[in-house]
Design goal:
Layout: H1 13-27, H2 32-39, H3 43-50, H4 58-68, H5 72-81, H6 91-97, E1 100-105, H7 116-124, H8 131-146, E2 153-159, H9 160-164, H10 170-184, E3 189-194, E4 208-213, E5 216-221, E6 228-230, H11 233-249, H12 253-266
Parallel strand pairs: 1-2, 2-3
Antiparallel strand pairs: 1-4, 4-5, 5-6
Protein name: Helix-turn-helix transcriptional regulator
Organism: Actinomadura meridiana
Pfam families: DUF5753 (PF19054), HTH_31 (PF13560)
Amino acid sequence: MEDPQALAPDRSLWDYIAVELRRMREARGLSGNKLAQQLGCDRSYVSRVENGRMPLSLRYARELDRLWETTFVRLVRLAQASDDGDWFTGLTDHEARATRHRMWSALLVPGLLQTPDYVRALLHVGVDRDMDADLEQRLARQATVWNSPKPPLVSVILSWTVLSQPVGSVEVMRAQISHLMELAEEPHISIRVMEAASGAHNGLDGSFRLLTVGDREVAFTDAPERGRLVTTPSDVMKYAVRYDRLADLAAPVGTSRTILGESMEAYR
């Protein structure tokens, strides 16, 4: 469990919301279980929000405002619209609990599908020099997802540039593509390739992913240093539509396996 003392409410609006929720709950003499009952959610949800592991949703912000006459809806909307660099809030928690992952990758192999050597090659050219810690974190996130007793359904669409852009040595790329081919053999994993012949499409402006968590979906957009969590249903729907349109253009699964094999053989 995260240490609530490690939250930085002066830096992150999401952390401020987490701290305020705990403060107001305790001021009213409510336990986490009692507040969860009043909101109609799980006790674990209250704990995750208060510890900064996931953001407060608009749905429960509205219920808090109704119960306590507060302004959590306004704070949540401000946090969603802001860019405070706190992109990691909720990401690992959502990844671990998601029953379905849909990913569009425009430039790089998605993090959950990267080999250790591919990760090292990426970290080597980055600005963060604590490579061992970053590698350990990346592999831990992968283990949480892939070692689950019931692994999630995963659908991935890779741009052809992902396979054409060398990351590390020839051996690193061959091993990475081989890993993708092995994953694609799993019954719960689908990997498709967007070929260059597809022309312009709505994924050219960046990578994103969609996660199904419980009875709702959330989206993440990738960007250097500052990815963004998207939770508003209408905004998440826009990403779902974009993904469906990309899926309409991508090569079928069988053809994509052939493309992966040809790409791997190109690295000799």
